[in-house]
Specification:
This is Haloacid dehalogenase-like hydrolase domain-containing protein 3. InterPro entries: HAD-like_hydrolase_domain (IPR051828), HAD-like_sf (IPR036412), HAD-SF_hydro_IA (IPR006439), HAD-SF_hydro_IA_REG-2-like (IPR011949), HAD-SF_hydro_IA_REG-2-like_cap (IPR044924), HAD_sf (IPR023214). Belongs to the HAD-like hydrolase superfamily. Pfam families: Hydrolase. It is a single chain. With 238 residues, the chain is an alpha/beta fold. The protein has two domains: 7-16 and 112-237, Rossmann fold (3-Layer(aba) Sandwich); 20-108, Haloacid dehalogenase-like hydrolase (DNA polymerase, domain 1), CATH 1.10.150.720. The chain is built from eleven helices and eight strands. The protein has helices spanning 23-33, 40-57, 59-62, 69-83, 89-102, 115-124, 139-145, 158-161, 168-178, 192-201, 232-237; strands at 7-10, 17-19, 109-111, 128-133, 154-157, 185-189, 205-209, 225-226. Strand 4, helix 7 (139-145) and strand 5 (154-157) form a beta-alpha-beta unit. The longest helix is centred in the N-terminal third of the chain and has 18 residues, at 40-57. The protein is elongated, with a radius of gyration of 19 Å. The mean pLDDT is 94.
């Protein structure tokens, strides 16, 4: 029973693109260029703490609390260095602003294996395509720099939508942009609750990208799991 799909929506981070290096390594290199010595591993731990706390306090880049995503990120980066013991406030703002700009480019992002080929094949098969990502407004530029933007009719970020996955409203907005009912759409992503379960909750089909040996949530039928992106078309067309 071949799925009658017209629209495919895609998560980005760890589905189509991944960071070239752990965050702490990129942060440490930029700090070093400014004469600040900080351990990359310490920065990675501090980043996780700062990011988590900021996300709880100001969800979805502080959009509903009047923050810009740029200010949100600059604050996260500064707090990351503060938690790692850097107290030089004068150095931190320009450092944070430089890192914010650097993460807007292909300097720090790389395309996952099989992603370009799979997106090309999906376009050739005539699927309409869009992005649904809990990302800020830099995403268009990052996708362009990584030569993926042209595959997509729309790029819907949580910052622009005002809702973050797993909130079903971001998927409903994607369906509106794609002009198809949920049963004719499928979402592809690597996160069980934000991607797989959330898309299914609004009536879409969904595929979970999951390398061998990752956590096995029991509710995912094997035909919905993608060991790699190149498995997608076989799953759709079987």
């Amino acid at each position: 029973a071949m799925l009658r799909l017209r629209l495919l929506t895609w998560d980005v981070k760890d589905t189509l693109l991944r960071l070239r290096l752990p965050v702490g390594h990129s942060y440490a290199a930029e700090a070093r260029a400014r004469g600040l010595r900080v351990q990359p591993e310490a920065l990675t731990r501090s980043f996780q703490e700062a990011y988590g706390a900021h996300k709880r306090r100001f969800p979805n880049y502080g959009r509903d609390q009047g923050l810009s995503s740029r200010q949100w990120w600059v604050d996260v980066v500064k707090q990351t260095f503060v938690l790692s013991g850097v107290r030089d406030d004068g150095a931190l703002t320009p450092l944070a602003e430089k890192l914010y700009r650097d993460f807007c480019s292909s300097r720090n992002w790389e395309v996952l294996p099989g992603a370009s080929e799979t997106l090309n094949q999906c376009c050739q098969r005539g699927f309409r395509m869009g992005v649904v990502s809990n990302f800020d407004n830099r995403l268009e530029n990052i996708l362009s720099q990584c030569n993926l933007r042209h595959h997509f009719e729309f790029v819907l970020t949580s910052e622009a939508a005002g809702f973050a996955k797993p909130d079903g409203r971001i998927f409903e907005e994607a369906l509106r942009l794609g002009g198809v009912p949920p049963e004719q759409a499928a979402h592809v992503g690597d996160d069980y609750s934000r991607d797989y379960r959330a898309a299914r909750a609004v009536g879409m089909h969904s595929f979970l990208l999951r390398a061998a040996g990752q956590g096995q949530e029991p509710e995912v039928p094997p035909e919905h799991v993608l060991p790699t992106l190149s498995h997608l078309l076989a799953r759709i067309e079987k």
